[in-house]
Design goal:
Blueprint (H helix, E strand, L loop, with lengths): L6 E2 L6 E8 L17 H9 L6 E8 L12 H7 L4 E5 L24 H11 L10 E4 L4 E3 L21 E3 L2 H4 L38 E2 L1 E2 L28 E2 L13 H4 L17 E8 L2 E12 L9 E4 L7 H4 L11 H16 L2 H16 L2 H6 L3 H11 L5 H9 L4 H4 L12 H19 L2 E2 L5 H28 L16 E9 L9 E11 L2 E8 L5 E11 L7 E9 L2 E9 L3 E10 L1 H5 L20 E9 L1
Parallel strand pairs: 2-3, 2-4, 4-5, 5-13
Antiparallel strand pairs: 1-14, 6-7, 8-10, 9-11, 11-12, 12-13, 15-16, 15-22, 16-17, 17-18, 18-19, 19-20, 20-21, 21-22
Length: 633
């Protein structure tokens, strides 16, 4: 018997460490009565929605602990003493001043970050050669107030001339404006201010910031890399439940301004680095709000920067810290019902914690997720197709949020595989297929090694192997699809799409009679692959030969003497989702069909199907039902 030491497969549960950094003890971590600017209510909701595959460790530190200690907690000192994965900035002070005060004219000689702190942050945000680092930042602040330096002498490196400087400086500017990249995503000088004629108010329906009426967000669609895409979906920060998104935020009477740097600033590649291909990674506004006084002029609420792609940490910039304060959360009871504004707001805080976590920390979470699923006995025994295994896995992951599942599925996707899918017609493989392929790869490793693995076992390699296998499978299918769309002969990974291992079916659908409308008579040609009851394949118009869409479905045995099966086929014809259901015998099929035409279903097809076609015509229809019959050809 081997004396090689053994260890369990499952990795340890990682911890996401978050620093809540402020410069004023008023922005405390409590929600005691009268602590209006505290962060206690936000922390409570964050804990209630904490991720499934990581623990949270949230610490609060004030740069100025009290009225007798100015700048006692500088960031370079904090980061040298203890590791943090994320820093959430909640600053009140505007700039350096010649007098330290925590009262009306808040500030002091060392209110702004110094060069040592900026250097420490720059290094902390960098992803190292070992894959570690890449700290994430939430940057907040608020509207601008009068410059506290007017009439005062500037000292200790203050960057504002009291005679010629700006009349208004943003609240939170002292901490925020010098943070690498993150400081450039908020406007720190000039308007918007607290004055009614140049403020940004998101107060809804004439209410006030402590009522139960939230502001409604306008979510901007993005692609899988976070870049604007009119055919995309809302940013993962706003994922709520499967196929649903966070729509609400607390409101506030005078918010600050989120901005993105101009082209000249972005040309500085030392500040805004490039990905491996030389493409400069840019920040983007992903959510906007409405000022009731100017409803046709939306204001920026949230901007994001996906530093993963450029070897640095991720960033989220928010228009105001009031989206996190006890004062603005008072009207939203907690605990809260699912789908309520309060529950959606709490989920956003948890999404922030996951999305801002360094890449290596999300990779550790992904390894834990896949290893736990791989060790789940029914999955190990099932031997299902990847798509079916992935769907089963999703049902077992109900305790994880949609954002967490998205991020943990995406984090180890091989870049060289993802780059194969530049065609707009086709998105990434479905999440069911991706996670299912990884699980099957994990199951194989577990079955070979038993319940324990050698110490040098690397689960990350298994995850990448599973993902790569799924992408390679889809690469052949993508090529076949594009060849079909162009009318060229079908080629693939060593075999045509409809080889002897597949089934070809011709099915005719005839719509039910409707007054004043002729019956719709369509003939479809299906090329189907069936693996343990899971159907995949493609469908074309049998008359014209025009390719229509991928097909998914199920095949289930019926308990009858004929040996019949229940067969369901789902596909798209333009923006219409068609479902054919019926009974198939040896070579014949009889059943019914339904046709529902909604833009929402076509746009969200990727949540349930192996492909998403983005260029379909979004023309709503009024639906059809009818009969279907066909033969195997």
């Amino acid at each position: 018997m081997s004396n090689t030491p053994r260890t369990r497969l499952a990795p340890d549960k990682p911890t996401i460490k978050i620093l809540l950094y402020t410069d004023d003890p008023q922005i405390a971590e409590t929600h005691e009565f009268g602590q209006f600017l505290g962060l206690g209510s936000m922390k409570e909701r964050l804990e209630a929605h904490k991720p499934a595959f990581a623990d949270l460790d949230v610490r609060w530190i004030s740069r100025n602990p009290d009225a007798d200690h100015h700048a006692a907690n500088k960031l370079n000192d904090i980061l040298s003493r203890e590791h943090y994965d994320e820093i959430w900035f909640f600053g009140m002070h505007q700039c350096n001043t010649n007098k330290f005060s925590l009262l009306e004219r808040r500030g002091g000689a060392e209110s702004e970050l110094n060069e040592e702190e900026i250097a420490a942050l720059t290094e902390w945000m960098r992803i190292g050669d070992d894959g570690c680092g890449g700290g994430g930042i939430l940057m907040t602040g608020d509207h601008s107030n009068e410059n506290p330096l007017y009439g005062l002498a500037a000292t200790n490196g203050n960057h504002n001339d009291p005679a010629a400087g700006p009349e208004f400086l943003g609240i939170g500017r002292a901490l925020g404006c010098h943070v690498p990249r993150a400081g450039a995503l908020r406007k720190w000088e000039g308007s918007p201010t607290h004055r009614s004629d140049d403020s940004f108010s998101t107060i809804s329906n004439g209410g006030f910031q402590m009522d139960r009426i939230p502001q409604q967000l306008e979510l901007r669609p993005v692609d899988v890399k976070g870049d604007p895409d009119p055919d995309g979906q809302p940013h993962p920060l706003f994922f709520y439940r499967e196929g649903r998104y966070i729509q609400f935020f607390p409101d506030h009477a005078h918010e600050g301004a989120v901005v993105t740097p101009d082209v000249e600033a972005l040309l500085d590649r030392e500040v805004w680095p490039c990905d491996a291909s030389g493409r400069q990674i840019l920040p983007h506004v992903v959510a906007r709000g409405t000022d009731a006084r100017r409803p046709n002029d939306p204001i920026n609420i949230i901007a994001t920067y996906n530093g993963d792609l450029a070897g640095v940490g991720r960033i989220v910039a928010d228009s105001t810290f009031h989206h996190y304060m006890n004062l603005n959360l008072r009207g939203f009871p907690h605990p809260a019902l699912t789908d309520s504004p309060s529950d959606q707001i709490g989920q956003f805080y948890a999404n922030l914690a996951v999305w801002l976590a360094p890449k290596y920390k999300r990779q550790a979470m992904a390894r834990l997720m896949f290893s736990e699923l791989a060790r789940y006995t029914p999955l190990q025994e099932a031997q299902e197709a990847a798509e079916s295994t992935g769907a089963t896995a999703r049902s077992l992951l109900a305790m994880a949020s949609s954002c967490e599942l998205h991020e943990l599925t995406e984090v180890d996707t091989p870049v060289e595989m993802a780059d194969l899918y530049g065609a707009r017609e086709i998105q990434m493989p479905s999440r069911h297929g991706l996670s299912g392929s990884v699980l099957k790869s994990s199951h194989d490793a577990v079955r070979v090694a038993g319940s324990a693995m050698d110490p040098d076992f690397q689960l990350r390699s298994i995850i990448k192997a599973g993902l790569k296998e799924r992408f390679q499978e889809q690469e052949g299918q993508v090529r076949n699809t594009l060849q079909t769309l162009s009318g060229l002969p079908i080629i693939g990974n060593g075999a045509s799409v409809c080889d002897e291992a597949n089934e070809s079916w011709t099915i005719q659908t005839l719509s039910d009679p409707r007054p004043g409308r002729p019956q719709a008579d369509n003939m479809y040609f299906f090329c189907l692959s069936i693996d343990e009851g899971i159907i995949s394949g493609r469908v074309s118009d049998s008359d014209s030969g025009e390719y229509l869409s991928p097909v998914t479905g199920t095949l289930m045995p019926l308990e009858d003497s004929e040996g019949s099966f229940s067969m369901t086929l789902d596909f798209f014809r333009d923006a219409q989702r068609v479902t054919i259901c019926g009974v198939r015998s040896l070579r014949s099929f009889r059943g019914t069909f339904t046709c529902a035409a909604t833009a929402a279903e076509a746009a969200s097809a990727g949540a349930s199907y192996a492909y998403t076609y983005m260029d379909v015509a979004m023309t709503p229809g009024d639906g059809d039902t009818g009969s279907a019959s066909g033969t195997q050809t």
